[in-house]
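INFO  loader      accepted 1 record
INFO  loader      residues=260
INFO  predictor   begin
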Amino acid sequence: MSTVSNLPDADPVQFLRIAAQGTALASHADLWRWLQGDVQEWLAHEVLLVGWGDFRTGDLEFDVVSSMPGMRTHDFTRAGIAPLIGYFRDCWVTARRWPCHLELNGCSQLLGQCASNARGALARMQTALVHGLGDGNCSGERVYAALSAQPVAAPGARTALKLLLPFVDTALRRIPPAPVRQSRCDRSQLAANVMRLADLSEREREIMTWVAGTTNPEIGCILRISEFTVKNPMKSIFAKLDVSNRAQAVATLTRVDAHA
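INFO  predictor   done
INFO  writer      dumping tokens
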């Protein structure tokens, strides 16, 4: 089991103070200041990349936190960065979902697919510490990669990432998503999703409000209707949104809300 005592020269009191700071973050600016502050003593890095969504299909969301020019979330497109996120996730799974240390000199092709204005900064990154959260459900995993220009990770860096990750994850889930640069294909898809959502009936929109994290019986209790009355509109929602499950329906709604 990873503990603070596994880290060299670790101060448990300092760790608890840093963790407490993480629980009070309210914006991406707060998160950036936190990561660039005392967290650097535990986990030195230049870029923090997080990806989540459906790793089977590559339909992923992401966030990038960095002080380097051209290395913000809005500098990338989903299509450009998704293969890199998928690679990091595959490495983490291969490592049996334990933190892993990767050398990036063999990832030039994946790095080259990212946004052109970010390639120079990414090319200077030599290593990545990768860890994630999730139990094997591809659509419920979140993968984090701390990229560094240093060729070797500091002693205890993997343990530091494992200890800090729950606090980083909690902060990112609470903070509104950063805007993502939209490619022409993304904009077309977004417009199509807006039209599909507009085609939902009033009852279907009510149900969509509660789809994320709520079962059909629970939705029925909330709306004071039967579970059967929820199930049929759900099928209609899937058909209208051109999706096959609840996670994809929620992802469609989230993408539209993020760019509304």
